[in-house]
Structures are given as structure tokens and as C-alpha cells.
């Protein structure tokens, strides 16, 4: 038996704690807003008409993830958004969303825009993928 941790009283290592667990407030009474996760891919005529690149309509061939979050009666200035590689954490005075993302993303280079007419926050994140035969 070998103890990995430098602190012998610790019951787990920091590597064993899943990313995003620090946001999991079970006592928080704010309700979760409605949201959608959509996937986006860049295609050209060579993909659509000729199928030359080998891309298909599956999420495995998508480059971006778009998360649309409905935030009725919310002002842009009230939104707090924190994005990590596998977690999106959104908080407003009335709503709270802790979303474990289906794919790891580039958390440093995302875009967010608030569409006030629709009362929707649209977050676009680049999916971080390992290069393989589909993603090259």
C-alpha cells in the first residue's frame, strides 16, 4: 500500500476529484434555466457535394459547441459565467446552471452573446479533440 498524497490525513488526491465538483451547491435554491446544446461544423462544397473530406453529420465531426440558455427577466450585467475545460457554470440572481459538457472545450477562446430580444445567452465554444482519422 502506497500513499500518494503528501498529506497523510487526506482521503483522496486532487487528481481524483472531478473537475467542476467545486461548483456543486446542493443547497442553492435557484432554479436551473432551460438550455440547449447544439453542434456546429464548417463545411464547404467539397464536403456537401463530393464528400471528399470524410465529414459526416455526427457530432464527432463538429468543431464548435453552442449552448443556448434561456434567461427570462435577466439583464446582461447580472450574468456571471465561468467556463472550464469540461464545465460551464452560469449564475444570475434568479437562475443557476452547472453544466458538465459532453466534450472538453478550449475554455480560453469562447464567445458569449446575450440576445436581449429573445432573453437568451448564446455561448460558442471550440471543442478540443485529439487528432484522429475523423478530426485532422
From TrEMBL:
Q: Which residues cross the membrane?
A: none
A molecular-function term among this protein's GO annotations: protein-folding chaperone binding
Pfam families linked:
PIH1_CS (PF18201)
Residues covered by the PIH1D1/2/3 CS-like domain: 32-127
Q: One GO CC term of this entry?
A: cytoplasm
One biological process term in Gene Ontology: axonemal dynein complex assembly
Do you know which InterPro entries this protein is assigned to?
DNAAF6, PIH1D1/2/3_CS-like
Which family is this sequence assigned to? Belongs to the PIH1 family.
The name this protein carries in UniProt is PIHD3 protein
Amino acid at each position: 500500500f502506497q500513499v500518494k498524497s503528501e498529506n497523510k490525513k487526506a482521503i483522496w488526491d486532487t487528481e481524483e476529484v472531478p473537475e467542476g465538483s467545486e461548483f456543486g451547491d446542493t443547497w442553492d435554491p435557484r432554479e436551473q434555466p432551460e438550455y440547449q446544446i447544439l453542434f456546429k461544423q464548417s463545411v464547404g462544397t467539397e464536403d456537401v457535394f463530393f464528400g471528399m473530406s470524410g465529414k459526416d453529420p455526427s457530432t464527432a465531426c463538429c468543431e464548435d459547441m453552442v449552448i443556448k440558455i434561456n434567461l427570462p427577466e435577466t439583464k446582461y450585467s447580472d450574468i456571471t459565467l465561468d467556463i472550464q475545460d469540461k464545465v460551464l457554470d452560469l449564475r444570475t440572481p434568479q437562475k443557476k446552471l452547472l453544466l458538465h459538457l459532453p466534450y472538453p472545450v478550449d475554455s480560453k477562446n469562447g464567445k458569449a452573446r446575450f440576445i436581449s430580444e429573445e432573453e437568451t445567452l448564446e455561448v460558442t465554444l471550440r471543442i478540443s479533440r485529439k487528432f484522429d482519422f475523423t478530426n485532422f
